[in-house]
Amino acid sequence: MSRKVTDKAVADRTPRHVPTIIVGSGFAGLGLAIRLQQQGRDDYLVLERGGDVGGTWRDNTYPGAACDVPSHLYSYSFALNPNWSRSFSRQGEIQSYIRGVAERYGVLDKHLFDCDVTSASWDEETARWEITSSEGDFTADTLVSAVGGLCEPALPDIKGINDFEGEIFHSARWNHDADLSGKRVAVIGTGASAIQIVPAIAPKVAHLDVYQRTAPWLLPRMDRPYTLPERLAFRHIPGFQRAARAAIYAARETQVVGLAKAPALMRGFELLAKAKLRYQIRDAELREKVTPNFRIGCKRMLISNDYYPALSRPNVDVITDGIAEIRPNSIVTKDGAEREIDVLIVATGFHVTDSPTYETITGRDGRTLSEVFDEDGQQGYKGSAVANFPNMFFLVGPNVGLGHTSMVFMIESQINYIADALSTIRELGLRTVEVRKDAQNAYNKELKAKLARSVWNTGGCASWYVDKHGDITTLWPDFTFEFRRLTKKFDVAAYDTTTARSERKVMAAR
Ligand code: N01
């Protein structure tokens, strides 16, 4: 991996000035870097704390890791891949795809890897971001946060967890040196990660305890390998792959009607999921335990064909009594039962609405992003800007997430918006751009009204989509093509701007 861009700056520790700094190189940051490269811009740098591109797809290497959105849709529109081996690709294939795209578009030389950004503060005087990192200090005219929502593993706050003496790791930090063969293993959590891990490890472990707090809804996974003729067709028949992608997109988009607009329509999915549950789990007691008690869609709908069969194995137990404490070699549940284990896998999700990165970004009025979100609510504008943070843009900021279709679609919409913002700043000679608070408030008022009637709000569940104020600050509550329309052009009128000249005028007036 090349480091030539910053070697000198790192060596002498002087802050290096880069016009645009992007933090993070998952689908989002990498996609923006490629767009800037395509526009012939050479004035950006990507700071990435990991050793490679890929973000969450680089980090989540647990057994069974795979995407639950079909790959022909879950990929960049500008870099379709006719060679996907199956409809829902596995982690390794997705990671190779992302890396391949980064190589093909020649942006790796504009990355600084193993560079952990530790703080970013706005300096009003210079109108620059001051950035500190494990690889030295930087200043930037514009900062883009592309760190993503699923990057900081959340460990459960359970009494005694730190005293556990066996092997313990989070699903997103899988310890591949830990041999699970013949071991007594426990998995805490039954979310999207756990339902992939459980079937992958159940056949090899001696015994597996699955600690379930909330039973998830499961739908069939229509996954299959692509045949050679299909792959040849994707490659050689003009428009075939685009048509397949469009069909997947349209089919997925229909779910928005039930999820965001008329949750009663989700009953249809519930009937399908219940039929699957009855068919796959014959034991009435187990079936009762894993039957969800909220409206489908309120938490992310999961897809799997092998999770229920794995739970039905004789060496697997589902435990629903709630964990009281973890001891050096066992887990004790609230009913007093103690179960010995050798390995503990925590598949308990991520810090999404409480990302630790929020505490490291300080805006115009001296408050951190975390303080602003605490005091003003976790709000943004078009998921791409936050008032009080001038010259800063977000990829996958507030209310951009999805449960039903490809995040890459949303990310590309934001890339359009932010790339246009950067061009506008340049063309108009702007010194600062900061979204107006009234524009942000009006935008969020509309979002809230839409979210109020959504299944995420009315479905009777507790999910990570909701922040500590009880607001859904992670999801986009409408069709994704509506977000594409909203982000087509940078709407500079929604921003307070200054130019170098207006700044000078203000200084003179003082
Ligand atoms: O995490 P989660 P995840 N004691 O937060 C339980 C994406 N993803 O890593 O439901 C006991 O969904 C928690 O219980 P409850 C996708 O967006 C995508 O699985 O809160 N249990 C839950 O069961 C997904 O939504 C793919 O009651 C505790 C589980 O841990 C997101 O990543 C694949 C607990 C956490 O589930 C996160 O998924 C995988 C505690 N103290 C992931 N704390 C794709 O295929 C938490 N839990 C694209």
UniProtKB/TrEMBL annotation:
Domain of life assignment: Bacteria
InterPro entries to which the protein is assigned, alphabetical: FAD-bind_Monooxygenase_sf (IPR051209), FAD/NAD-bd_sf (IPR036188)
Pfam families noted in UniProt: Pyr_redox_3
Record-linked PANTHER family: FAD_NAD(P)-BINDING DOMAIN-CONTAINING PROTEIN-RELATED, L-ORNITHINE N(5)-MONOOXYGENASE-RELATED
Protein name listed in UniProt: NAD(P)/FAD-dependent oxidoreductase
Source organism of the structure: Nocardia bovistercoris
Lineage of origin: Bacteria, Bacillati, Actinomycetota, Actinomycetes, Mycobacteriales
